[in-house]
Amino acid sequence: MGKSSEMINDGKYQSIAQYPTHLIAKIFENVSEGIMVTNKDKMIINVNPAFEFVTGYKANEVLGKNPSVLQSGLHEVSFYINMWKTIYEKGIWQGEIWNRRKTGDIYPEWLTIMAIRDDEGNITNFCGIFTDLSEQKVVESELEKRTMMDSLTDVNNRFTYLDRMNALLEASASMTTEVSHAVFFLDLDRFKQVNDTLGHATGDLLLVEVARRIKKLLRNKDILARYGGDEFIITLTNINHPREAAAFAEQLIRCIEQPMSVNEHEVFVSTSVGVSIFPEDGAQTDDLIIKADKAMNYAKANGRNSYAFYFDELNIDSKRMLVLDAELRKAIENKDFTLHYQPKIDIKTSKVIGVEALVRWHSDKLGHVSPGEFIPYAEETGLIIPMSELIFEMACLGYRELAVQGFPDVPVAVNISSIHFQQNTFIDKIQEILQHTNTSAQNFEIEMTERTVMNSARETTSKLVRLKQLGFKLSIDDFGTGYSSLSYLVRFPLDILKIDRSFIQQIVSLDDKQAVVDAIIQMSHRLKMKVVAEGVETEQQVKVLKNMGCDIVQGYYYSKPLPMDELIDFLHLWEVEYQGRI
Ligand code: C2E
Ligand code: CA
Ligand code: CA
Question: Which ligand 1 atom is the nearest neighbour of the CA of 387?
Fold first, then answer.
């Protein structure tokens, strides 16, 4: 006591017992905590304004009554018994309690009840002091929701997913009849590119939109979570047949590939989906996720925008992926690629009016790897940028060789990946390459897919205009496989449109394909674009295309892509034997 009595003595501190009653009354009137005082028989004898405010009862409505008027009915009798036991034994009880307001609303409060004793130690009064917690509870439940949910997309986060899956699988295992569930692992294709070129804010909005679209496809009992970055995971519960899972995967892909408009950008994303099935592929959540993930990687490596079911050989495939990665990096460093060139022929004059450069890679460990496999992988990992620069340089040197061999008017078309195109330094870099290989843009054509052009249209237009000003011819590749409408393409300064091989393949057998190709050709001509038919393999196809007024043909019917020396032989031979004759 020594210290505190000294404090009182120095006049700065005063025991509350020494407060004048009017000061205590002031505090009683003005604190924000509700205060209720009873006599020893627990009859309410005093309440403060905060009590009236929180409970909704006026003082005169509760004076003389038992505090049980406030009871919510939510607590069991034993709860109150324990509470009073504590008060009698320890003199004080504190805890959270649900009470009822006059309006009937139930609310949580933080309550302290004290027993007040006289000098002999007999209880004279009880005093309850409480704080309304209802607002705090709202915040807490929001917080709880946040830690269970992904705050960006408002779907479950991975932890909640794991919990729910574990519960689901446990319940399923104990059932007498066998139930089946399908797990889908989803990864957006080239999401990094969206983030890098349009900014993270746009990337975020895109994820929100993706989550919204997926939600629409689900039933209540299905589970959706954002697994991380651009990955989502879904469980379709109680499926009857894997066919249902296949149909759902198909639906997922279709709903995500629809163009999204975010932040005034029209963005195209596609997704790769891997599927694993409980219980066939695994009885545990982890196992099912790993297998669905593997299947997803397989789908991605096989051209993206598709789905795959897990199968046992996938374990081997992921080893190939590791080797591919290491080999590709090595090849870039050692410039281990070559180019083959495929001639393009003017359908009217049968002159070779250009060649397309196509990359070829032979790896020591993997043998010949097709660009259909390693280009998508390089795009996913960013390796495409150094590789693409290398290819452009090789194509420049290829053109020089052609010129030296007597074919200076055969331009070389180079395929440019959208990842490379969207680099800010893209144009500077290729200008640099032109300069040091001593070639000029007039001798080159740039082939880009629809997706490249359609993504982030605003930046695209100015880049295309600059390329055009430099002297490049611009062509749109694989036309018909994306979503662009011809009228949309008017905005861009394009010279050439290449109709995808899939249309040409069926042009003889399917009338509707013929009608589509015919329409594309007519429209392109109106827009002052020349039309190339890709993948021409038969004479019949050439005839049909000629009748439709197609300008240029390219395909195995004329020649496969050739190494430079064979190309030169081909060009000489062609001039002598065929030009002007077929
Ligand atoms: P693409 O640009 O559409 O190239 C045409 C593909 O069709 C080439 O396959 C070519 O060999 C093949 N092809 C040509 N005529 C016929 C035909 O009559 N029948 C059939 N069945 N196929 C024919 P390749 O060389 O395997 O290239 C596949 C894809 O890989 C290319 O499609 C292109 O998207 C990409 N690619 C190839 N080289 C490069 C490159 O240097 N850079 C970039 N960024 N991508 C490349
Ligand atoms: Ca091409
Ligand atoms: Ca093509």
Answer: 42
